[in-house]
Amino acid sequence: MIQAALNSEELDWKRLDLKKNDFLIRKGEIEKHIYYIVKGAVRAFSIIEENEKTIRFGYTNSIINSLSSYLTSKPSELGIQALRKTTILQCSKTSFETYVNATKERLSAYNRILNESIVGLIEREIDLMHTKPTNRIKRLQKRSPQLFQEVPHKYIAAYLKMSPETLSRLLNCKM
Asked: In this structure, what is the dihedral angle of CA atoms 112, 117, 119, 123, given to the nearest 10 degrees?
């Protein structure tokens, strides 16, 4: 569905070229777009008790937004920030929803994408229940091998709730 949507003349995709540390959305703003990452990487994070907590990544050929804000039209609890130079295609919520609701097939495909997002959230929760850092790394490598090539390790370490040094040491030894 994503490829069809990207190529559709029914949708008004706008190209955004982000520099490292530019934001797609900041905490407190209402998400009004869906983003397709053409090239680059972003992270979704929140600041909790003065500490940054990364909860999701987007990288080349993936979609991202602040989903809870997008679905509820409430202020986002997350910021989405470029980790390096990143090219994004942005589509408005109104345009995207009109496109999705135009046919049963598109709506069904969209529901599959939402289901995959829910499964991904559950997988992340399970990842973090593992007390052994090696198990958390292995699960993430299996689920998202491209992540380790696209995202700086300091952010992956934070995502896995370990220090960058621990991640580096474990990646360099045979697990």
From this structure: 160
CB 124 within 8 A of CB 14: no
Position with higher pLDDT, 24 vs 130: 24
pLDDT tens for 155-168 read 999 999 899 999 99
Full-model pTM: 0.87
Give the residue from 141, 158, 167 showing the smallest Cα distance to 56.
158
Q: For residue 138, what are the domain limits?
A: 2-172
**What is d(CA 128, CA 140) in angstroms, rounded to the nearest whole number?**
10
Altogether, the residues listed in the chain come to a count of: 175
Identify whether the C-beta of residue 110 lies closer than 8 Å to the C-beta of residue 61: no
User: What are the E-state strand segments in 60-115?
Assistant: 62-64, 79-82, 86-92
Give tens-digit pLDDT for 42-53: 999 999 888 888
Counting the structural domains of the chain, the total is: 1
CATH of the domain at 42: 2.60.120.10
Range in 18-27, 28-37, 124-133 the model is least confident about: 124-133
3-state secondary structure of 29: coil
Query: In whole angstroms, what is the distance from residue 131 CA to residue 126 CA?
Result: 10
Taking residue 19's Cβ as centre, other Cβ atoms within 10 Å add up to 9
